[in-house]
Amino acid sequence: MEEVILSHFDDLRNFQNFYSIFKKGLNYFYFTPVENKLKFFKDVFYIDSKEIILYQSIFIDNYFTGLYIEYYNYMNFKKKEGFYKNKRKNGFWIEWYDNQRVKLMGFYKDEKKIGYWIKFNKFTDEKEVEAFYRDNEKDELYIGYYENGEKESEGFYKNGKKIGLWFSWDFDGYEISEDYTE
Questions:
Q1: Does residue 3 register a pLDDT over 60?
Q2: What is the mean pLDDT of residues 27-32?
Q3: How far apart are the first and last CA of the chain?
Q4: Model confidence pLDDT, tens digit, residues 5-15
Q5: Contact between 66 and 91 (Cβ < 8 Å)
Q6: pLDDT at site 64
Q7: Residue 125's pLDDT band (boundaries 50, 70, 90)?
Q8: DSSP helix/strand/coil, 143
Q9: How far apart are alpha carbons 155 and 179 in whole angstroms?
Q10: CA gap 182, 138 in Å, rounded
């Protein structure tokens, strides 16, 4: 059973920019007759008559495209948000813990982590890790933190492997070691 939610026309004479959003079962789709394809709009399910959204995105030829938002299925707030382009994660992505605090954020290019990424503690909003990535591998500066925000370790990566001088600190911020890695 299909229930039409919305129909839209920009040009009635030749059906350009026409789409209909309809509900089939527990899922929402939109349909464009020009492309003659169903495009996934959002996936939902219900608990005690309350709509719970799992994710929202456009789904073409079995792949996500454009803005993608995923939700915690039992709380109805965001878990992940980012963009898909050419079937791959691209651009800025952000994730949240189930307590609505930011978990991590960074950039993807063709499904690979690139550039500056940061991960936060679930309970304190303090940074846990700052790292740079190239082609999905740690590359350049890496800093790890304790829960209290003090540095735990700092050093460099090259092609996913530790290199050079690495420093470690105790929980109170006192340097406890220096190691050299080739």
A1: no
A2: 45
A3: 64
A4: 333 333 333 33
A5: no
A6: 74
A7: confident
A8: strand
A9: 9
A10: 16
Tokens of 162: 């530790």
Rounded CA-CA distance 131/46 in Å is 39
Burial-class residue 157 by CB neighbours within 10 Å (0-12, 13-18, 19+): buried
Cα–Cα dist 178/90, whole Å: 37
Tokens found for residue 90: 């691209």
Measured CA to CA, the distance from residue 23 to residue 25 in angstroms comes to 6
pTM for this structure?
A: 0.70
Judge contact between 142 and 155, C-beta under 8 A.
yes
* 139: amino acid identity, one letter: D
Residue 160 CA to residue 67 CA, distance in Å, equals 29
Tokens of 169: 């600190």
